[in-house]
Amino acid sequence: MESDTETSHIFTFYYGEEHLLVKVSDFLKDSLKENEKCFYCFKEEQAEKFMKSINQDNLETDFLFYLNIENIINLYFDKGKKALKKELTKMVKEAKQEGYKKIRILNSPLTVQQNLADEQLIAWEQGLDEVLMEVDDILVLCPYNVSSLINRNKNKSEQKLIKDALKAHPSLLSAKEIYEISDEFNMKI
DSSP 3-state assignment of 82? Predict the structure, then answer.
């Protein structure tokens, strides 16, 4: 996953669970190679498939930890951006004390979506992006399932959510490359 930009909040899309596992595997391989502590935020059933996929790839898992994203989101909505920044900064500091260079978070919008209205999800993504601009040595990947868009599902609210989520991220991961999302691109979608 190469990057020309100093981004820390990345949108990616996937088509179905197997595509997600491929993207996740690449993200984790890079994390392992770069000596980064990695957190994942999947629900139990999704996490089991995720761990099974990792084991099939023969990846080490001692750098990989579960993060209850709901607690982080609640902290943000209850206490604001300052509290979120403090928590993320603390996580980075602890990882460095353990010998890691930085941290990666494999977010799960699907997990988040189950507990938040679409507007709250976008508010969370925008708030997270603002906080991440102030915290060094952290990378967050937010994968969104676009199956319904590709299958021509006419669900307008889902289409709007994907577009709004894309606009809430400064960067896009596609084909193992990270691209900066320009304002011009956002105006077109």
Answer: helix
Rounded to 5°, the CA angle 151-54-30 comes to: 90
Q: How far apart are CA 153 and CA 46, in angstroms?
A: 23
Give me the residues paired with residue 3 across strands: 178
Residue recorded with tokens 């969370």:
124
The string of pLDDT tens digits covering residues 160-182 is 777 777 777 777 777 667 777 76
**pTM exceeds 0.90, yes or no:** no
Write out pLDDT tens, residues 20-39: 887 877 788 888 889 999 99
Nearest C-alpha neighbor of 113 from the set 41, 169, 64, 53: 41
By mean pLDDT, which of 25-29, 66-70, 182-186 is the weakest? 182-186
Contacts of 51 (CB under 8 A, 6+ apart): 61
Fold of 2-177: Rossmann fold (3.40.50)
**Angle subtended by helix axes 16-33 and 44-56, to nearest 10:** 60
Kindly state the helix (H) or strand (E) to which residue 158 belongs, with its residue range: helix 156-167
Tokens for 137, please give them: 């040595």
60 three-state secondary structure: coil
Average pLDDT over residues 113-142: 89
